[in-house]
Structures are given as C-alpha cells and as structure tokens.
C-alpha cells in the first residue's frame, strides 16, 4: 500500500511540474488595446506565468492582431 501511495504522489508531482513547464512565459491574454497620439499603438497583456500586466508599444499590424480577451505572445521578455 505504501508503494502505491509513493508512486501516486510521485506521478502527481511530476504531472503538476509538467503543466508549469508547458506555460509559455512570453504569452498572456490581451486586456486592453489603445491608440495614443495617433501613431502609438499599445497592447496591454496579462502574463500567463506571473499574472502581471504590461503595456507594449507595437506596430499597427501587431495591434490589429491583438484582440482583447484573446491569447497573445510577445518576443520581448517581461
């Protein structure tokens, strides 16, 4: 019985670590999109790993791709 419990606990710990490893910390959910001063396009994104929000200044093409409430990835480290 002890061996079964140890195996189950080990598998559970491994499964939870694997879930965290699958998160891409350069991705998150778009929380806001704005145009500042007619030439500055911004996307605010909530990071999947940290939960922090960050505003990114992006090109108009990237801004058009970022839909509020949808997942989005940025190459910049945050």
What would your notes on this structure say?
This protein has 78 residues and is of the alpha+beta class. The protein has 2 helices and 4 strands; from the N terminus they run H-E-E-E-H-E. The protein has helices spanning 2-22, 60-65; strands at 27-36, 40-47, 53-58, 71-73. Strands 3-2-1-4 form a 4-stranded antiparallel sheet. A hairpin with a 5-residue loop joins strand 2 (40-47) and strand 3. The longest helix has 21 residues, at 2-22. The chain is elongated, with a radius of gyration of 19 Å. The termini are far apart. Mean pLDDT is 81; it is low at 16-20.
Q: Helix share of residues?
A: 25-40%
Average pLDDT reading: 81
Number of strands: 4
How do the strands line up in the largest sheet? 3-2-1-4
Question: Notable features of this structure?
Answer:
single chain, alpha+beta, 2 helices, four-stranded antiparallel beta sheet, 4 strands, 78 residues
